[in-house]
Design brief:
Strand order of the largest sheet: 1-2-3-4-5
Shape: globular
Strand content: 15-25%
CATH topology: Aminopeptidase
Structural class: alpha+beta
CATH architecture: 3-Layer(aba) Sandwich
Distance between the termini: 43 Å
CATH class: Alpha Beta
Number of strands: 5
Length: about 150
Amino acid sequence: MVTIDRATEADAETISALLGEIEAYYGGENVPGDLAQVRAALFSARPAATVLLARDGENVVGMASYTFLWPASGADTSLYLKELYVREDARRHGVARALMDALRDEATSAGCSRVEWTADRDNPTALAFYEAMGAEENQGKVFYRSER
């Protein structure tokens, strides 16, 4: 039975390890994220994001990180999913769906008008998952990135 809860500072090392796994998933090295950066980004006086963790008993099997965007439509706020990740041995067991359901609940509790996210076009598994959930690709946006 998978449970979903908000990460606390006690989870920082686990989140750091998950960040390394995510980096490896996208072709980089499996090096844990900088623990000080994780703590500052998630548990400082002004957190940049919130993380939900999926747990199977004591084992963390997945995570979702999100933030809020404003304005979304008019003066509405949206919940923006930045990262959805399920550990390999837990995939195809409903963990991602449980995380997405929890994100919807978080959005509803925060009064958001929608949940938004991006996905890599070269990740057909993710794209099929989102499509199976009833999500539709938004053709109206172009994604930009500027390195500082």
